[in-house]
Amino acid sequence: MKAVIVEDESLIARELQAKIASVAADVEVVTILPSVKTAKRWFLENAEPDILFMDIQLGDGISFEILEQYDLKCPIVFTTAYDEYAIRAFKVNSVDYLLKPVDEEELARAIEKCRERIRTQSLPSADMQQLVQQMATPGNPKSLFKETFIVTFRNNWIPVKTADIACFYRDNLNYLITFEGEKHILDYNTLEEVEELLDPSVFYRANRQYIIALESINNIRPQENQKLTVFLKPPVSFEIDISREKAPAFKRWLDR
Q: Helix count (H) and strand count (E) of the chain?
């Protein structure tokens, strides 16, 4: 079987490749892809492998971006140090979810699950579906996504509920804007850091400058160049461009 590893840490990637060879001699790692950009280009030019081993948090983004662009049918084993991504991982074509450092016995079991998936072309197993349901239950004591942001206003700390935020945007500094139009500076260096904390079913990374909430969208206007312009509800009233490349994924995010 052919396998591909998506991992930005070269040492970790080589260690995973060695462990795969140790527990499953018939699985050949054909390439190691170190970034979202590289992976997108590779899948554009090559057939998908039998198994995909994929880290989630990469240097240039989140690997789910790859799955938004390509409808991959192969089983996926996610490997990451961040277990808060588990529910999002299982909602794609995930067979297993391994926390780093990867244990060889768990890896072997994950590969065997991949074999079974390939043989039967089955849906995710009932226990995984149950796990997703349990993790999504509101009563779960551990929230998967950030519920409150702390901002500073006139030398005071103010909690802003994530549910009250219309968008995040970058203009030298990073800001959040509430549905009431209040603007606050965020204590985060990049929007990528903010994006990792947000529920992807509620917030969408429209472009490098904006992350928008579903409930903040007033209307969307298609452009002749296949780009989209998103208009946010007053009093925010921003006009936000979505590129031609991201437009299909954005439409799928809306149409659910």
A: 8, 17
Contact between 209 and 170 under an 8 Å Cβ cutoff? The reply is: yes
Give the pLDDT confidence of 203-254 residue by residue, as tens digits: 999 999 999 999 999 999 999 889 999 999 999 999 999 999 889 889 888 8
Global pTM? 0.49
- Domains within the chain, CATH numbers bracketed: 2-136 (3.40.50.2300), 148-254 (2.40.50.1020)
Residue found by looking up tokens 């551990």 in the block:
142
DSSP 247: H
Tokens 């990792």 belong to 196
Q: Burial-class residue 110 by CB neighbours within 10 Å (0-12, 13-18, 19+).
A: buried
Q: Using alpha carbons only, give the angle 24, 109, 3 rounded to the nearest 5 degrees.
A: 45
**Cα separation, 34 vs 7, whole angstroms:** 5
- pLDDT tens per residue, range 69-88: 887 888 889 887 755 555 45
Question: Would you say 8 and 55 are in contact if contact means Cβ atoms under 8 Å apart?
Answer: yes
Check if the beta carbon of residue 205 is closer than 8 Å to that of residue 191: yes
When computed from its CA atoms, the radius of gyration of the chain, rounded to whole angstroms, is 20
b/e map 228-250, b = 16+ CB within 10 Å: bebbbeeebebebebeeebbebb
